[in-house]
Structures are given as structure tokens and as C-alpha cells.
């Protein structure tokens, strides 16, 4: 260890001119990083403006830009990095200018599944549901939440169908045979599929279910997150560590009440040591902190959830057609990886197809999309078949034998072509006129629709919105106000 | 006639009383009848205008042509006689307007004026309610008469014809009908009557509409406002709200949107053309159900076919009208 005066003098030793004129006051010296051996150079003086010689008279210049002071691009301030994306992805759930709707009642644990609120607009309770839904990214930017004072949903016919499914599952929870009900939500563009999925999630949150939601299937398969082969898997599967860690975080944030009390009952097989007397939340936190262990943590969590006495589970995914085709990932042989070979998606699809049952009962929901949907002929065909079977079972469309068939998707969805009640398609269609009237009255009470809501007005907007398509109805009556 | 004479003499009496400021409005009735006579009102004159008493001038009476010249009757008189006769002969033309520049037109005009004078007392209907007649254009009339008729003159004649057309239809004399026939176009507007639409056994009415290069067929049944275009819902087929509104505009403007279900097949052109073709098609099929809505639909602008199409490109032009830019060399 050299003596400290030496170190001090060494630190002052900077090889610029400042060392030579000691007499100058120290503050005037340019600050130079210690230990740097390069000489300090002052920044170049700013160029004088207008120093270039004026063009000669009578000589044509080639500059065709007229009246522009700074030819080197606009001087506007650019948003900082990430600002634009943050603005694009921002979820606004309240509008201070909208009026408070006095008649709006909140959903709660008692009334969320009751048939009495069919056709009513119900508020989502702020602290229990809205925060959880925010945590799982259930709100989308394209939905009109930012138009109203606080989030509220219309309990439409399809939502009541969902509620009855929830009741069926809960009724079977007491018996020995726990039910797993699987549904695909399909319908026109803007008909409210994602919102129906959100309604299902809010029901699950209110009924203290465990919710695992893949908010956007595209994010899993579009090769924007890292992936790694899962060791000892045959055929080869791929884990997505960062995505899984993020998913664990979402699960932890959204299922707060469950994680508060849940204890670890098994001894999970993890690559990382778990502290003694760990709770389930600690297990998840371990997976969040160590993305490389996130998949084993997810498996361990799933094992925990499979133990008897745990709540029923809601598995939800939005954008189903993304996971019913090849993903954008490449294998080591530079072949595209099928989406079903990604562990997270495989986990979901196994439960959707009925290959695995939810041990404590539950619901598997998948929503299709019409605006962001790659072609997935097998999925489209299966949905078509299921809808045809709902009408009559004798006039079912046949697969065109000259088309390439994605066998894995067909296998996963083959239950749609059987008589099982557990797997079906919920057709999200247009609202009835009563439902349309109810939601338009809500718009009017919020002050966003300035028109008397009478029968003629409702039926006119109902027709213009393509027979009660709720997204179009909102567009026609609230957004395009003239 | 007698009544007219009576009224005129009454007016004369009133005139004689010297009421300078005559109530003009009361006079309009018979002044309108008189206005066809050539009347010169000089603004410089300060005297009260008086109307000629003798309206039935003798000159208007049917003109008798001179008898044909019999050259042979005095043939025995020899050459000298015939020569003398030829010298003294005056050929009188058949028409008194023979020596005018436009004899046929003058004859037509005079005969129509005379006819109007005879029928002027018949009750009339407002011009808006008179039967629609397509009169011959000035060009057609010029070709018919082979005379260089001036436009203003012809319009004066059309004025008389329109006045004749305003006679109450149940009282029109046959001679007026015959006289007007000469000035009518061969094809009249109401000649071609479209076959009225029918509601078929399923309660549908059909209408066809076109616009730009699109064509639409629409079927209307009674219902509650459902719309299908080419098997898709309205919002799926037309993304723009404006197009949706113009597609069902005929129903919306008449407050029938929730009374009917609409099915349409549209093809050709773009979305705007398809939407506006649907406007026409829906309006036509609505008229089958409710013909009384025609004025309302016309006011809403749904009845008339817009005949505009893309103008063709011409040789030497960049587009239909645009010329290439001028280059110095």
C-alpha cells in the first residue's frame, strides 16, 4: 500500500497544461477525470451562424428549399427513448370530464354470477379487480376505457353464459369430479371478445380463483424474447425465460389474496436453493429474480396449484390464432419451431385440448382476434365446424383435402367436433336492442352521448353498427360525435 | 265572349271615371289574356294607357286565296289578249304573310294567337299542375319549317303554347289538342311507364341501383332493421360510417330503418360507388312497399340516378382533359 500523499499527488497528475500553471485558481481548471492519460480538449466553439458567403447576385443556387431557416432538419424536440412506445401502450382507465354515473352498481363476490344483472352495465371494483386486471394487461389500448369515469362492463348474454360456466365449475368443486370447461370465444371484429375475456377474468378475481392470463399470444411467438431448449425434452421443447419470469410477476401481482396466505406444501425440485419455511410467494419471487429458473418455478407453482384444496384456475389467452401455427423462432436446424413446442403455449394448449385436466377444476378460455390474426386454417375450420354443430349436427363442413393441414392444431382442437359439452365455441355476436339501449343509456349518463336515448335512436345506431356490434356501437355513438 | 265584353266595358267605365291610380292587382285577370296582343307601352307617355277597343280585327279572319287563273278561258282572244292578261295578272299568295321573312312561323304564331283568343275564357289550372309536355326545341322547329326563326320569337310562341296547355284538362277543346300536337316532340316524358314493382310471395321487394361503375340489388322485407350486404353485416362491409349511412340513407331519411330488413348484393366499383348504388336500390325497393314516400325520397335525394361516370382519356392528353406540360424545345 503506497502512502496516501503519493496517491493524492498521483491523482492530481493529469497530463494537461493545468499541471504546469499552478498559480491559476483551481476552479478555472477544466475538470479532468483522474487517471485519464489523454489531454483534455475543450469542446469545439460553436460555429458562427451565417458565416457562409452570400450567393453572388444573378447566380442560381441549387437550393430549392425556400424559407427554411435550418436546412438540417426540423429543430423540434424528439421524445426520449421509449417515450413513444410508452405513449402508445398507455392504458387510461378514467376520464375526469365524463360524468359519474349515479346508478352504476359495482360487481362484487355475491352478485357477479347472478342472473339478475343480465343486460345491466356494472362497474368494476377499483381496488380488487381493476388493479389485478391492469397487472395482467387485460385492458387493451383499443378499448374505450378512457372515455368514461371508471371501468364498467355490460353484462351481455355471452357474459351470462360465462357466468353460468363459472357456476357449473364451482358447483362441481364440492363433488369428487372437478370439471374443466374449455371455451373459445370467436366473433366479428370489435364484437367484444377481448372484453368478454376481461369479464371472465374479473369474475374469476372476484370469486377468488387463480388466474393465469397470456394477455397477447403474439408476444410469445414473435421471437422478441429469448428462448432456450428445455433439457431432456423429447421432442425438443423451448422455454422462454424472460417471458416466463414476467408472467410469474404478473401472476404474483394479480392473485394477491391467494399468495398472501398460500404456503408451500411440497418440496420443489429447483436449480436454486429456496429459503427455509418459504411461502408460495417466495417461490414465485425466486423465479422472477432468476429468469433462468423461471420455468422450473412455474412447474413447481403449477404442482402447488394442483394440490387438493387450492382454488379453481382460469387459464386465459388472447389472440388464439398466433399460437395455432409455426412460431417465429428457429430451431438449431434452422427449421421453424411450432408454437406448440414452446413450453408455455404447450402448457396452455394441453389444457385447452383436454389432454390434461385442471385438478381443482377451472375454466380455459381462448379468444380469437379478427384484427390481428395470422392465417390459421385449422383453427378457422374447427371453429366453423363447432358453430355448424351448434345449429345442426348433420350439416358439418368438411376439410378441403387439397389443403395442407396442421395436424398438431387439428389434434388439439378435435374435441370441437365431438359431442362433449366441455369444449365449445362461444359466438360473440351483436347486442340485442335491449342491451344496446342499456349501454347507450350508460353512455348518455356519462355525458359522452348527447342525445335523447329513445327507441328510434337506439335502433338506428344498432343498425348502423352492424346489428349491434358493440365496438361499432361505441364508435358510432360516442367516438364519432358530430 | 259576352262576359268578356261585359267585363271590358265595365273596366272602360271605371277608366272613364278617371281613377288614375288603378288597382293593378285586380286587372291581372284579363290583362293576362290580353298580353298576347302586340302592345306597345311607351314609358315617355304620361297619358293613362288605354286599350284598343277593337280587339277582333278583321285582318285575323281566315284569308281566302285568289281563285286560280284560268289561262284557257280567254285563250280565243289571241296572243295579244293573253299578253295583256299576263301583264295585268297579280298573283295573290295563299298566305298573307307570304311576303314576310318567315311566313310559316308568322302563320303559326298568328293561328295560335287566334286560337288562344277563342279559348281564353276557359278555366285554367296553375302551370305547375299542367300536364308535362316536351315541346320541340328551336332547332327542331327550324328544321320543320326550314325558316331562320329567332329564339326570342319562338319563345313567345312557346309562351302561348304553355298557356294553352294550362287549360283545364277536362275542358280542353279538340282543336287545341290538335294544334298543340304540331309543336310537341314525338316522344313525351310520361310515355314510357315502368312496370310497377311487386312484392313477391316472401314479402320481398326488389330494387336495382347504379352509381359510377357499381351496381346494387336490394331486397326489403318487413323486419327490425337488420342489414346484410353481400352476406356481411353493414359494419363489416363498409368501414366508413359515411358509407354505411349513405347505403341505408333512403330508410334513415324516412325513419323506416327499424321497420325493414335489408339484403343487398353489390358489385363493381369502389366503396363510395357501391354505397351510393345501394342508396338508389334501397329507395326503389322502398317505393314498392310505400309508393307515397316518393316525394320524401326525392327530397332526400334518393330517387335520381347520378349519371356521372369517369370521363374517358383522350389521345394527346395526359388524362381526360390534362395536357402535357409545355416544354420549350
UniProtKB/TrEMBL annotation, chain A:
Alphabetically ordered keywords of this record: Mitochondrion, Ribonucleoprotein, Ribosomal protein, Transit peptide
GO CC terms, sorted: mitochondrial small ribosomal subunit
PANTHER family xref list: MITOCHONDRIAL 28S RIBOSOMAL PROTEIN S29, SMALL RIBOSOMAL SUBUNIT PROTEIN MS29
Residue stretches of biased makeup (Basic and acidic residues): 75-85
One annotated GO molecular function: structural constituent of ribosome
Subcellular location field: Mitochondrion
Name of this chain's protein: Small ribosomal subunit protein mS29
Domain of life: Eukaryota
Family: Belongs to the mitochondrion-specific ribosomal protein mS29 family.
Pfam family, one: DAP3
InterPro entries: Ribosomal_mS29
Extent of Basic residues compositional bias: 57-69
Major subcellular location class: mitochondrion
Chain intervals for the UniProt region annotation (Disordered): 38-85
TrEMBL record, chain B:
Any one GO MF annotation of this record: structural constituent of ribosome
Protein's name according to its UniProt entry: Small ribosomal subunit protein uS9m
Matches recorded under InterPro entries: Ribosomal_Su5_D2-typ_SF, Ribosomal_uS9, Ribosomal_uS9_bac/plastid, Ribosomal_uS9_CS, Ribsml_uS5_D2-typ_fold_subgr
Family in the record: Belongs to the universal ribosomal protein uS9 family.
A GO cellular component annotation in the UniProt record: mitochondrial small ribosomal subunit
Swiss-Prot/TrEMBL GO biological process terms: translation
Annotated region described as Disordered, given as residue ranges: 307-329
Keyword annotations of the record: Ribonucleoprotein, Ribosomal protein
Domain of life, source organism: Eukaryota
Skewed-composition ranges (Basic residues): 310-329
Ribonucleoprotein as UniProt keyword: yes
PROSITE patterns: RIBOSOMAL_S9
Record's keyword annotation contains Ribonucleoprotein: yes
